[in-house]
Inverse folding.
């Protein structure tokens, strides 16, 4: 692996772990609000509750699983995206790739990587929501979780794999296209300004999270449930809209958006700094 790819994977993993409390809060709210088990969805309240009971580690449940998922996702996605992008650029007289092509490549690479790593996602969601079950699953870690989640059939590790792939495919393709647009828009509107990159990430995150959250919401419910109440992604969508209203699909949105923005901004500056350092610039 190249130095740049190693840096991207390590930074992505570190930032994912640092922002894990936001993901924990979102998932807790999605499951607690499911079928109106609680009157209102309050992610911040659920995070405070976890801290009061278990200390700061309460909002870092599943940290090892998140770390593994983020690291391998970065490598897999890059391993698919980079060859596709390089091949496309080699066929262009200016050795460039259009935004439309990169959007397609990014969405495809992210969807495939997410689909492959769905078992890690299943374990993570169940670790984060184990406290909500009358009979906890008791996953003691990633390996133990994978072993237990595969019983009685290994195919159960791929619960909601399609929703997971759709979530990341939509998220990544939207981030790519919108980021490209606003990376030119903000400098054109206000000139060179140190906040241009953060504003670009925030603008892209605003739409990417809005389009991908319904898939994430359905995925979380399917992966958490211990029965067959939700028969499929389509059935979960229908029941969620019926019981919780359409906005039930958007529970935890602001935490999801905040995490996406923080991760994007932090990753850009950290990766740029580390790459410059590694190359002696």
């Amino acid at each position: 692996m190249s130095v740049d790819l190693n840096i991207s994977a390590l930074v992505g993993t570190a930032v994912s772990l640092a922002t894990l409390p936001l993901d924990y809060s979102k998932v807790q709210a999605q499951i607690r609000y499911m079928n109106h088990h609680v009157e209102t969805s309050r992610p911040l309240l659920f995070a405070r509750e976890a801290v009061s009971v278990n200390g700061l580690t309460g909002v870092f449940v599943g940290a090892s699983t998140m770390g593994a998922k983020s690291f391998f996702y970065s490598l897999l996605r890059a391993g698919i995206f980079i060859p596709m992008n390089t091949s496309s650029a080699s066929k262009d007289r200016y050795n460039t790739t259009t935004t439309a092509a990169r959007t397609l490549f990014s969405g495809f690479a992210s969807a495939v990587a997410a689909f492959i790593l769905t078992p890690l996602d299943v374990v993570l969601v169940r670790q984060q929501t184990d406290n909500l079950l009358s009979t906890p699953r008791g996953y003691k870690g990633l390996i133990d979780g994978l072993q237990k989640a595969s019983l009685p059939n290994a195919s159960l590790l791929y619960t909601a794999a399609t929703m997971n792939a759709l979530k990341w495919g939509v998220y990544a393709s939207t981030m790519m296209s919108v980021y490209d647009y606003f990376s030119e828009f903000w400098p054109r509107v206000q000139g060179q300004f140190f906040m241009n990159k953060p504003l670009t990430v925030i603008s892209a995150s605003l739409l990417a999270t809005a389009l991908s959250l319904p898939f994430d919401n359905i995925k979380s419910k399917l992966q958490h449930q211990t029965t067959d109440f939700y028969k499929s992604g389509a059935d979960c969508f229908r029941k969620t809209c019926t019981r919780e209203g359409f906005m039930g699909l958007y529970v935890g949105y602001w935490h999801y958006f905040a995490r996406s923005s923080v991760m994007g901004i932090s990753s850009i500056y950290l990766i740029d700094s580390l790459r410059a350092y590694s190359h002696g610039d």
User: Anything to note?
Assistant: The longest helix spans residues 161-190. The mean pLDDT is 93.
